[in-house]
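Quick question: what would this complex look like in 3D?
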Amino acid sequence: MRHLMTGESFRRCGLAQRQFIRFFGCVLYVLLLSSCSTNNENGNTTATTTVSPPVAQELTLVSRPPAIDQEMKQRGEQDQAKPVLRVISPANHSKINGSTVDVRLDLSGDLKGYMPHKDPATGKGNHIHVILDNQPYEAYYELNQPFELRNVTEGKHTLRVFPSRPWHESYKNAGAFQMVDFTVYGGGDASKATTTKDGQMMAAPTKSPAVKPEASKAATSNASPTPAREGKAMASSNAGAVDMMKPLLTYRRPTGDYSGADADSIMIDFWLTNASLQGQGGDYRVRYSIDGGTPGFIDMWDPIWLTGWTSGKHTVKLELIDKNGQVVENGGYNSTTREINVVKP
Ligand SMILES: [Cu+2]
């Protein structure tokens, strides 16, 4: 009897406890919800926290910004040029000893005055985009001397090059894009410091943290009294299993930092090889997604501009997809995500 009573009271007690826990849980949940929404509101109004993105972002497609239209007019017929590049070095399928790879290019074709050169006053100008493997591109301005890819790791690599305008929109005529592969023996060691030709330290060991592009660029520009060659200490990477005969999407822009007027509308630009898009009678589409959001599609091979960016870091994903919406496999290059940093006043 006593036994039963104890058992029953125990069960009752257990029931009461469970109900209490449930009730308390609900109260906690409601409290959490309200505190979350309060935090969000604070985040929205101050916008100084590092939450990315801090506010909802609504991007809109816009046409080429008027400032660029104006610049195009001032350039005369240059934007109708059909520049043709040829990679002299590294030769396709070549073997290279050591971690520095000289890129030498030959530019020909119907140039209409197009010539890569950095204007010292503005720091801008026509340039060539140089892409090692599937890393972000590097800008190469003065073709009379080679561009040095430094600290290139051992193994197989791809190099992609194509001419660009000062606002980083690429020329898309036949022959503008070139791609080669090469293999490095005794390449760069990620644990060793990268130095300039004079042996001057230009970057800390790339192990951790990775070399910051801005830091190495700054170091290059004032490395020595004699103007240093254009070049860049490369991040560690190797070629994907790319088939040069298969459809290939080359991610170009956006990349890096955007501030001031540059952050108003940001261009997505890419190169397409062995594929035509559905708006031009082909089978393929380019799918883009910002911050992992609802994807958009590009069916004509032209740059697009998106406006409405909020301050902070954003990811941009660009993919080449087939009729069935599947990413076209080609060494992993046809699906690329880059992080950009937008700074708005
Ligand atoms: Cu560029």
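Answer marked as accepted. Residues 127, 129, 139, 164, 168 surround copper (II) ion (CB under 6 Å).
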